[in-house]
Amino acid sequence: MPSPWPELSVVIPAYNEAKRIRRSIEKVVAYLRARPLSWELWIVDDGSRDDTAELVMQAIDGLPEAQLISYKPNRGKGFAVRAGVLAARGQWVAFLDADLSTPPEEIDSALEFLRSGNDMVIGSRALSGSKIVRKPPLYRRLATAAFNQIKYALVGLRQFSDTQCGFKAYRRSSVRPLYERSIVDRFMFDVEILYLAQLKHLRVRELPVSWAASEDTKVRFIEGVVNMIRDLGRIRWAHRDVKRAERQKERMVTM
């Protein structure tokens, strides 16, 4: 008897994306319809102040595989992705930025790695084989370099060349518990989920991807730096009990 649940769930968080959300949905749906697997699409409107929600409803009208989650006020990208991942029912879950800076076709390679036993696949713009179509401005690259040093000092994750790419795919059964525990609502949610995955010894694979920098990023530089440092500290503090419990397990195994 076939499963009532889809094989693949795709999540798209969106905030003030009226200019491009309909086009992005059309591209993702065309990709999914061309694949030999069952699927569902979740668009999460993160408290947009424009017509994003209305345009999403128009785009998915007559498409039972697609659903809109909408709420107010704006809560942050991490909250939006969490809402989509927790709503997802597929065996595999992938999320894409609304601007499709990484195209949906990258899901093909991610699914191969998940089916071979990995729990998470994270897009990396730093790996050999990645195709950078449009680079971010210099100030953003400098900010990223500074961010990485602070991240390494507070939560580690040196083994990953890129934690912030807006493309990731998961084995839902492995990653759902991490999202249920997560607390970061804004841009450091990627780091939090990877930090928890590392503590839980999940199998994480980096994937070189095609990527183009968005021309109208919603990250404000100074505000972003302040929130980044604050949230990295929160990640380390909030999950100290997980780290302690995993260390106790390791000690018991070696006794």
What does this structure look like?
The protein is an alpha/beta fold and 255 residues long. The protein has one domain (8-254): Spore Coat Polysaccharide Biosynthesis Protein SpsA, Chain A (Alpha-Beta Complex), CATH 3.90.550. The protein has helices at residues 21-33, 52-60, 77-87, 107-115, 138-155, 172-181, 189-199, 221-238, 240-254, and strands at 8-14, 39-46, 66-71, 92-96, 120-124, 131-134, 167-171, 204-208, 210-212. Strands 3-2-1-4-7-5-8 form a seven-stranded mixed β-sheet, with helices on both faces. 40% of the residues are buried.
Q: Helical region count?
A: 9
**Residue fraction in strands:** 15-25%
Helix percentage range: 40-55%
Low-confidence segments, ≥5 residues, pLDDT <50? none
User: Could you state the order of secondary-structure elements as H and E?
Assistant: EHEHEHEHEEHEHHEEHH
In which order are the strands of the major sheet placed? 3-2-1-4-7-5-8
If you average the pLDDT, what whole number results? Answer: 91
What is the C-level CATH assignment?
Alpha Beta
Biggest pleated-sheet summary: 7 strands, mixed
What is the count of distinct domains? 1
Strands, total number: 9
Which fold name corresponds to the CATH topology? Spore Coat Polysaccharide Biosynthesis Protein SpsA, Chain A
Distance between the termini: 46 Å
Instruction: Assign the CATH superfamily.
Output: Spore Coat Polysaccharide Biosynthesis Protein SpsA, Chain A
Briefly note the structural class of the backbone: alpha/beta
CATH architecture title:
Alpha-Beta Complex
Rg from Cα? 18 Å
